[in-house]
Amino acid sequence: MEQTTSPRGVVQAGLAMTLVGTLTAVSAAISRYPVYGGQAVRYAVAALILLAVARLRERPGAAGGRPAGHGTGPGRPRTRLTLREWALITALAATGLAGFNICIVEGTRHTTPAMIGTVVGAVPVLLAVVAPLAERRRPAPRLVAAAVVVALGAAAANGLGGGSLTGLLLAVGALAGEMAFSLLALPLLPRLGPVRVSAYSAAAATPMLLAVGLLVDGTGVVRMPTPGEVAGFAYLAIVVTVGAFVLWYDALGRIGADRAGLFAGLIPVSAAVTTMALGLGTPSGAELAGSLLVGCGVAAGLGGGTASSASERPPVGPRRGSGDQQAAGEARADRGAGEEAGATVDRAASPRASTRPGVGSRQRSGDQQAAGEARADRGAGEEVGVAVDGAASRRVSGVVGEAGAGRGASEKTGATMDTRGRSGAAVTPPADQGQVRVGGAPCS
Q1: Is residue 315 part of a domain?
Q2: What is the domain count for the chain?
Q3: EamA domain: from which residue to which, for each copy (predicted)?
Q4: Structural domain includes residue 437
């Protein structure tokens, strides 16, 4: 899908990051539950919901879908993962989900949440640079500058905080997890879609978090939750995981990771608004100023039009148009040369076979031999024409449409010239064939 400033993609990216930002306030409801066990429960519930949704979309005649076996939309056959896709999903779950949560949890024991938030707030800048490079195109200077403004706004909203070197390193690890959450999903989305990528990654992260929980909390990694904790886990699983993940991954395919990354700056803004809405606190002046900077940066980044210009997009194969038309022209020339050779031999054979009528059997034998040689020469000429024509067809097999159009124009010209030879009509040149044109990340 072409990446542009799609209104739908913009809304989805903004809504996804807004939902993720509400996690901070809602997490207070599950603060007493074992951390790793709680995250494992959250991802397990989300994976079950997402897999059920994906299964429903596979059924023929699903709402808004197509019959099974047609295209890649709803109602498509079940997708079998390749070894490469399994590796990417495992890496995505280990870094973007489980690894991110581990770095956040352990990081808060060595540094302040503000420091972690400030470091992770650099995601827009890194995505604006790394995502285009991964797609073999140049980063857009406007997007990079806008991402810097967004990161500064997020830092102002979070505060600088302080802590040890260990805490800083863990914060950098959380930043790497945020980057991986988007970048590792990009090659999976075209074939699997946002629902399956979200489902598979959440399912893969569940045993990883349970294993870490067993090491940290032992057999107390999970317990029966209280009603308040059940409500908190339900919100995290359904809204923050199912809803935000699918919205985010769908937005990546519509507006690109570099442009979508701008909306990561909305996380601290959403957290401050949610905290105020729940009566848990009042935003400070720094948070308000940071929110204003984030808004300015996002607006500046979205004002640049398409996510990447045609010159910045990765190469998609040989350019069609002049090169293919040249190949088609060469094919037509080769075919014409072969046919002309056959016709020349044919014309040469006629006089040789008929210049000496009634001379005698010996002369007739010689004439018959000459005629036979002429026919052999003609057959060789036609064989050359056919061989050349076949070779030319193979040379332009990738552009059969253009070659066919050019051959049709050539035949039309030949018919017109033949008419002129008989009646003196003017030859009309074929119409110009023209040129053919070819066409982060949320907290877990």
Answers
A1: no
A2: 2
A3: 167-299
A4: no
From first to last of the 444 residues of the chain, give the pLDDT tens digit: 445 568 999 999 999 999 998 887 787 788 899 999 999 999 999 999 999 999 998 776 555 444 444 344 444 556 789 999 999 999 999 999 999 999 998 988 888 777 888 888 889 999 999 999 988 889 999 999 999 998 888 888 777 666 788 988 999 999 999 999 999 999 999 999 999 999 999 999 999 999 999 999 998 999 999 999 999 999 999 999 999 999 999 999 999 999 999 999 888 888 878 878 877 777 778 878 888 888 898 888 887 554 443 333 343 333 334 444 444 455 455 555 555 545 444 444 444 444 444 434 444 445 555 555 555 555 544 544 444 444 444 443 443 344 344 444 444 444 333 433 433 334 344 444 334 333 344 445
Enclosing domain of residue 29: 7-302
**What phi and psi values does residue 163 have, to the nearest 5 degrees?**
160, -170
* Angstrom distances, CA of residue 415 to CA of 125, 142, 245, 427: 63, 56, 62, 9
Same domain? 208 vs 249: yes
Looking at the structure, tell me whether residues 252 and 338 fall in a common domain.
no
Residue type, 96: G
Specify whether 108 is located in the same domain as 256: yes
Q: How many helices (H) and strands (E) does the chain have?
A: 18, 0
Do 296 and 376 lie in one domain? The reply is no
Task: Give the predicted TM-score (pTM) of the model.
Answer: 0.65
